[in-house]
Amino acid sequence: MDVLTFSPKSRHCAQPLFLVALVSLLSAVGFVINFGTLYPITIGWVLLSSVALAVALAQLRQGRHSLVADDRGLLLLIDQTVVPIRWDQIQRLDLIAEQQLLGIRLKPNAHVWQQLSPRQLRRWCRISQGQLRQFGAPAITEGLLAQPDLLHQQQYLSQQLADRSGFHILLSQGEFNDDLDQIVGQLRRAHQEFMWHQPKRDATVTPIDANTTQGTREARALRSGDSRR
Questions:
Q1: How far apart are CA 73 and CA 135, in angstroms?
Q2: How many distinct structural domains can be found in the chain?
Q3: Pair 9, 108 in one domain
Q4: Which pLDDT does position 31 carry in this prediction?
Q5: φ, ψ (nearest 5 deg) of residue 172
Q6: 142-198: per-residue pLDDT in tens?
């Protein structure tokens, strides 16, 4: 299948804004160094260039939020965290229209969170807690505090989110440039195509016992003898 890439809106303007802000800031600093005097307009120039550079850097970080799909599965790229999910680990893909969210429900044996580092798990715990608040659930509970480490905390939060929303992972419309219903449709078709081409399991064949075969032949012979009489 073709590689499907869904990127956020900010990616298109982040790099030009970063270059313009960087050149402007360097020019302002060079002006101050050459003339040695800080004019009010120069101070404003430096401040505006610094703000523009900070905005561009934030947009570049957000530009890493994307989703890539191919014949192997999905790649979620969220805030420098890559979460690979194979197609056979996904149970369902759907759209929560009321909140414009893409939901991914994992199978019970999908060990997605075990692939993440502690820093990435901490990031996903914050994401899951924020999404739980959207559904009116408390972000911190006694069950969460009882978990021994970050991995079990994220697994617990993911399950709590699935109990509330029906999905373990939620992605919002604001993270993508394309319409969410179009993204969901393409991903659902790719998932169904993968499941369709999966080899079907062979039916279990019960071995035939030799004694059973011999008994069957004798019964047929008796029936044929009775019919001749």
A1: 28
A2: 2
A3: no
A4: 77
A5: -95, 160
A6: 999 999 999 999 999 999 999 999 999 998 887 777 788 888 888 988 888 888 877
